[in-house]
Amino acid sequence: MTTPSLERLVRAGIESGAALSGTVQTENIGFEKIVCNVVANPNIRYLVLGGPESAGHLTGEALKALFRNGVDEKKRIVGTGAPHPFLFNLPMAFIERFRSQVTLIDLQFEENSDLIRQAVWSCYQEAPVEFRGYSLYDPGAYPEPPLSGRITWRVTQPWAEPEDDAPDSEEADDEG
Predict the structure, then answer these.
(1) Structure pTM?
(2) What are 9-39's pLDDT values in tens digits?
(3) What are the residues whose beta carbons fall under 8 Å from the beta carbon of 85, sequence distance 6 or more?
(4) What are the Cα distances from residue 145, in Å, to 34, 97, 113, 114, 148?
(5) What secondary structure letter does DSSP report for 133?
(6) What is the mean pLDDT of each run of 10 residues along the chain (176 residues)?
(7) Counting beta carbons within 10 angstroms of the beta carbon of residue 160, is it exposed (0 to 12), middle (13 to 18) or buried (19 or more)?
(8) Rounded CA gap, 34 and 89, in Å?
(9) 157: Cβ–Cβ under 8 A, 6 or more apart, which residues?
(10) φ, ψ for residue 131 (rounded to 5)?
């Protein structure tokens, strides 16, 4: 359920020029969707984290840990207390690309829509702008081509590791 204060933050992001703006409720499939969208667009260079923590999922903590520590060999986000921080559906190349392409602007627990607007505005300026200890500007597109893929493993137990990375037979039939 989205509260009016969260709606204001989402609107502030998109109205001030963010490529994407929204909420994330889970530290697994929610993150996978973010990563897939970001690595498909080399022009996205910043991620502004704002608003409260997602109760029970610790998405803010998990996102910061993903940037800080990455994932282990089982694609578990290292250094978070989130209950299910697995990115099974993503190739390691997507995860590493995300971490190198994007800079995290940590405004977690800030619920001031004007602050979010200022952060987003700062990210697309030609000359560097100081914003809360960050030097922000538009560095241009990431120098590597976009990465494209889709989430193929249907998660029924997000805490369990899939047996293999092959798409299931139904999805393979759809690709014909």
Answers:
(1) 0.85
(2) 999 999 999 999 999 989 999 999 999 999 9
(3) 27, 28, 62, 65, 66, 76, 77
(4) 18, 11, 33, 33, 10
(5) T
(6) 86 95 92 96 97 92 98 97 94 97 97 96 97 97 93 59 50 41
(7) exposed
(8) 12
(9) none
(10) -140, 110
